Amino acid sequence: MILQLNLAATIAVAGRLAWKKAKPVIFRDEFLLPVVGFVGIILLWWVVALANRELMPTPTEALIANLDYILNPFYERGPGNLGIGWLLLASLRRVLLGFGLGALVAIPLGFLIGTSRPAMLAFNPIIQIFKPVSPLAWLPISLAIFNLADPSAIFVIFITSLWPTIINTALGVSSVSKDYLDVAQVLEMPRWRQIIKIIWPASLPYIFTGLRISLGIAWLVIVAVEMLTGGVGIGFFVWDEWSRLNLSSVFLAVFVIGLTGLVLDYGVGKLQELVTHRPGSVK
């Protein structure tokens, strides 16, 4: 009897494991729970919209009003009348330029701070002073320097994306085990080789964490900057549609901005996995 019960329990456990591996994606928690959360947000939007019928559209009304933008994202119908795809690409260009320039400066500077105490003492006060400054506070300064909206926006992205990458790179470099460096010195390994073979691989997870945070901040800031500077971009689109009291398009822009931020973070995470051979995670 006991043997039969054990056999039945083993079969049941094996059956559950087999179903867990073989069941379709739509029945897995990784799919179902995000869908439940998203549906909850849509329902909340619907309730709030029904309570504010004069101004706020329901999800179905917003979808119908934005069908042209969704089905034709890259249309060109005259000066300033562009599809949301072109606006998104314009914003992405500014973000990637500012973020890329920031990474080129931040990673070497973080290495210098992490490996040199005098450099840390020299740069740390500067970082602590400028890091809390609001990104938009840099906009008047950048406009005074460049006198043009586009390079001013790129400069704001550059300056605000520096700090997370510098701090995380310096932390990663300074966190390398001293035992590894002592062994390298015993083996008379040149300093440049220590950096390439020991410090760089050990600090890569920290560097990518800084890059992911910086990219998130850059994408967050560009929307606010474009609202103030105008021109072609997803941020100015939000402000322009709000000026026309067209909340349907504002909701579309919010969804596009959020989805783009998710894709950018996912892309950097996958790049981190490819380079470090470890799962990417934001600390």
UniProtKB/TrEMBL annotation:
Q: What Gene3D superfamilies does the record point to? A: MetI-like
- Span-the-membrane segments of this chain are 31-51, 95-114, 126-146, 152-173, 194-211, 217-238, 245-264
Q: Which UniProt keywords apply?
A: Cell inner membrane, Cell membrane, Ion transport, Membrane, Transmembrane, Transmembrane helix, Transport
Note the PROSITE patterns from the entry.
Answer: ABC_TM1
Q: Where in the cell is it found?
A: Cell inner membrane; Cell membrane
InterPro entries reported in the protein's UniProt record? MetI-like, MetI-like_sf, NtrB
Q: Where is the signal peptide?
A: none
Q: Which SUPFAM superfamilies match?
A: MetI-like
Q: How does it sit in the membrane?
A: Multi-pass membrane protein
UniProt lists the family membership as follows:
Belongs to the binding-protein-dependent transport system permease family.
Q: Which NCBIfam families match?
A: ntrB
Name of the protein this chain belongs to: Nitrate ABC transporter permease
